[in-house]
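Protein modeling request. Please complete all fields; requests missing the sequence field cannot be processed.
Requester role: graduate student
Desired output: 3D structure, token encoding
Chains: 1
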Amino acid sequence: MFSLSNRDRVLVVDDSPDNLLLIQSILEDEDLDLVTVNNGQKALELVAQQPFHLILLDVMMPHMDGFEITRHIRNDPDIPYIPILLITAHAQPSVALGLDIGADDFIRKPVEIDELIARVRSLLRFKHTVDEKNMIVRQREDFASRLTHDMRTPLIAADRMLNLLLQGALGELSEAMQEVLRTMSRSNANLLEMVNNILEVYRYESERKTFYFSRVDLKTVITNVLGELRPLAQEKQLQLQGELPEVPVWLEGDRLAVHRILVNLVSNAIKFTDQGHVTVKLTPVDQEQVQIQVIDTGSGISPEDQLEIFERFRQGKHYNGGSGLGLHLSKLILEAHQGQISLTSRLQEGSTFTITLPLSQTPAQSEEKKVV
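Delivered output (372 residues):
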């Protein structure tokens, strides 16, 4: 059962003292903390400083009307959601305008007591529902963040111990024991990668990720990625090659984040290619954009899987491991860089992931901190 407990704060905005007094008298038995102001500027100052559960807003006021106040509140990202009830004597078109710019409900003058009370209660119920949902989402995200963060420590420790064992630090191992340890090491590495991806996705989606933007040479980044992953390709007898211009190609971005995207795309291409090649192609599109293509001759991705491949926890049917977060994370990073990613693929013929990024238009400069 709904209860107006803990005295919900309601802001009433009207330039008429008589109207303010009328609303106060109607709502006096509702156990509300009523705050009244007689102009829009005072209302906006209060909303920016104090939390409110509901705003009752007269449409017709001098200097700043109810529509303009509504626009200011809805366009300010720092103001959490507050239901707005418009009080109007206008005809239907003005009601439609108010709802279209962000008001939640309206009531006509002269105000009927029972109707006003019912609409206030209804909007307060809605506000409580929204707040409870947001709290649950925050708790879930915080739990995921803490869990994945705490899981990383034992996984990293296990990875180091397994590597020491494989290196013979504790004595010579039989071939059978080495194979078991290699399997354990691969499984541990996959789990560690999944935990890292979950943690990174949480940081990006909760806007807690910090980027360090600087002038980055994409040619150098791609060359480094190819060098790191070439042993993985050689194990599968694949040709890993780059088609790169002779001159540097400059991007304004976070070098480590861009490196992560390319490692993810190239390692995926190697993972799902059994024969042939994986090619990374860097091509300036024009003076403002550059294109990076990761091309493989692997198993390909079906048309239905291509529709969801960049969504979180989505894997194509050809995937036999992983968390389904790598491509989603890559998409988030690219969006933060004003870039895009797309896919073309045919089953049993291979896939091409295409990245488009804006080129740097500024000379070399020191690193700049940017929060997404």
